[in-house]
Write a structure and sequence with these properties.
By secondary structure, the protein is α+β, with helices and mostly antiparallel strands. Helix content is 28%, strand content 22%. The protein contains 14 helices and 32 strands. The strands form ten sheets. Strands 1, 2, 3, 4, 5, 7 and 8 form a seven-stranded mixed sheet that branches. A six-stranded mixed sheet has the order 19-24-25-16-26-27, sandwiched between helices. Strands 14-15-11-18 form a four-stranded antiparallel sheet, sandwiched between helices.
């Protein structure tokens, strides 16, 4: 390992040489208080930036062990340090030359606190939980150029002056706001704890009193501060919990079963559902929804016209299509609203059940890579966004649902006989889903009171405040009988497992090199395919999509063998990530992966237009 001075001299010597000469600086450098690791050097100033790491040992970072002594706290601390490094980099780094020259940046992030590969906690060589922690931080650097010539002096300033200052300002605990850091980790730990209480209390979601649910706009996910109405639970649905850090918290508990959210337009129905669907993730302090939590296996379901469907058994909902099309193994490259919504439900059920993971070992060396650092991992049950052995909870908003899939009223039943209508509407299956499969549903419904007959709980939103109107809804249902005939049969139907055919997933475009590329949070290039994930609303971070793309390649290389079901494949991939970290998905340390759920990984695979399967 060479030192800072050697790197500085080398960069000055490279001044005015061709840009590719930067490749010579790849390696490790001792900066006294930290190690600078240059893993990858870009070959062009307009190409993807170079990949750097810094490793700050525990005796320098001096992060108190109590700040990361649980799995929740560890993930939250890593998120907090990533944000601090980003803030420090933005205040110091500046444009230097052409292309991405001068850029020092970490992965992007939003309001959610996700497990990321941008930062890791390095423990000392003792098992004392009160010991101090160090940090490994991964980031990107745009090495400066004038045209395609190296700007060696500016590079020396960036690497040998700016980076040490950023590290000092953001990765030394003594330079951080300790109270802010503790609030960050304690907020996440409390939210995780609340999420773990749901099932044993018969709940599928919890919305805290005082929560601010509205957002500033459709493109700004920060809380609406002016004229925002703080949420208050209806007395009959109010529950209380005693959190580990903040103590007593009250709010609305949504019980298992079928829940309707009703109310007039613009009164907060969809806003409440959106907060619940993102309640599978933790949020930063100040988001307003920090203590809105949902069952970790809650899945948003919507119609998705035009998506491809590969061999899904949608027969519980759709049968005897014209021209004798098979719905037990339904294929289409252009699904309708009803067939896409049926497929989305069945696909969630197909991968929803899994065994509980065991606790992880106390320490792992190198996260599956041959690193010297030891990363702190608490021996505990999975928390945060792991799904455990929970079955899905379906979240449906009528605004994004197919009308003919949701309801067939009495008049339409009289006009169109059942033997001429292939769709069994959701209203006739939602109770069976709960009775047969244990699957609860939360449904926003403003246009059809028919659902009063099947609802267990009815919540009315009025000016963003919730009221329990279950008794009134049941009384209306009794007094105004619709006399519609139930069309769902005696049981929900079977959930068929599918086996992917290996040749139908090809990330290499028929060549040697793998091709995957991510655009924002809604599009993934996989080989020659463009996968549209715009309707998969619970992908909230581009880092999740990058990790999903890498996980698809990993699954193809390791487990898709023509024998394993899709659910088994996803089980194995998620277990490997849990055991060895997301680094297992890449050949070298990536700093821009964010943790995803099994449901979104399955969603990406299921929307691959080349996918072929057979039933097992």
């Amino acid at each position: 390992m060479t030192n800072k001075e050697t790197l500085q001299r080398h960069l000055l010597q490279l001044d005015n040489r061709g840009y590719k000469a930067y490749k010579d600086i790849q390696g490790n450098y001792d900066f006294s208080e930290f190690t600078l690791i240059i893993d990858y050097v870009q070959g062009d100033p307009f190409a993807s930036p170079s990949k750097f790491r810094v490793r700050v040992p525990p005796n320098i970072a001096q992060i108190p062990g109590e700040v990361f002594n649980s799995r929740s706290r560890e993930i939250a601390l890593r998120d907090y340090l990533t944000r601090q490094f980003d803030r420090a980099a933005h205040s110091i780094s500046s444009k230097r030359g052409t292309g991405k020259s001068g850029m020092i940046a970490v992965t992007g992030f939003g309001q959610e606190v996700l497990e990321r590969t941008s930062a890791f906690i390095i423990s000392s060589n003792t098992s004392d939980i009160e010991d101090l922690g160090g940090v490994e931080l991964r980031f990107a650097v745009g090495l400066p150029a004038g045209g395609r010539s190296i700007l060696g002096r500016q590079a020396a300033e960036m690497l040998c002056e700016d980076i040490p200052q950023i590290v000092s300002n953001s990765l030394k605990y003594s330079h951080l706001n300790a109270a802010e850091c503790r609030r960050h980790v304690e907020t996440v730990e409390d939210a995780d704890w609340l999420r773990q209480q749901l099932a044993e209390n018969g709940l599928v979601a919890f919305v805290a009193d005082g929560a601010i649910l509205p957002r500033r706009s459709g493109v700004d996910n920060s809380p609406l501060l002016n004229n925002a109405v703080a949420f208050q639970a209806p007395p009959s649905l109010k529950v209380e919990f005693n959190c580990p850090n903040r103590g007593l918290i009250s709010g609305m508990g949504i019980p298992a079963g079928i829940t309707l959210i009703v109310g007039g337009g613009y009164h907060g129905k969809s806003t409440l559902l959106r907060a619940i669907e993102l309640g599978v993730y933790n949020r930063i302090p100040g988001d307003g929804r920090e203590f809105v939590v949902a069952n970790p296996a809650a899945v948003k379901i919507r119609a998705e016209d035009g998506r491809s469907v590969a061999g899904v058994d949608i027969s519980p909902f759709i049968n005897h299509l014209p021209q004798g099309r098979d719905t037990a193994q339904f294929y289409t490259e252009n699904a309708s609203g009803s067939t896409s919504q049926a497929a989305n439900i069945i696909e969630a059920l197909e991968v929803g059940r899994k065994k509980k993971e065991e606790g992880r070992g106390k320490k792992e060396e190198g996260r599956g890579k041959k690193e010297e650092a030891q990363y702190f991992v608490l021996e505990t049950q999975l928390v945060a966004i792991s799904e455990g052995d929970l079955v899905p909870v379906l979240l449906v908003d009528e605004d994004t649902a197919a009308t003919n899939f949701m309801i067939r009223d009495r008049r339409m039943q009289e006009l169109i006989a059942k033997d001429k209508e292939p769709i069994t509407p959701f209203i006739d299956k939602v109770k069976q889903l709960y009775a047969d499969c244990g699957v609860s549903t939360i449904l926003v419904m403003g246009g059809s009171g028919d659902y009063f007959d099947v609802a267990d709980t009815v919540i009315s939103m009025d000016n963003f405040q919730a009221y329990n109107v279950t008794e009134k809804a049941k009384e209306i249902a009794k007094n105004y009988s619709i006399s519609r005939a139930a069309e769902g049969g005696e049981t929900f139907g079977k959930i068929t497992q599918r086996v992917p055919i290996p040749a139908s997933l090809d990330p290499s475009r028929g060549r040697r090199d793998v091709r995957v590329k991510v655009r924002d949070v809604d599009e993934l290039a996989f080989g020659t395919e463009e996968i549209d994930l715009g309707a998969v609303e619970q992908i909230v971070d581009s880092g999740q999509l990058r990790a999903i793309a890498a996980a698809m390649v990993y699954a193809k290389q390791q487990y898709i063998d023509g024998k394993r079901t899709l659910s088994e494949i996803i089980d194995l991939v998620m277990a490997d990530i849990e055991a060895q970290g997301m680094d297992i998905l890449s050949h070298f340390p990536e700093g821009d992966f964010a943790m995803f759920r099994r449901f979104e990984l399955a969603a990406a695979i299921n929307r691959l237009r080349s996918l072929s399967v057979f039933a097992k």
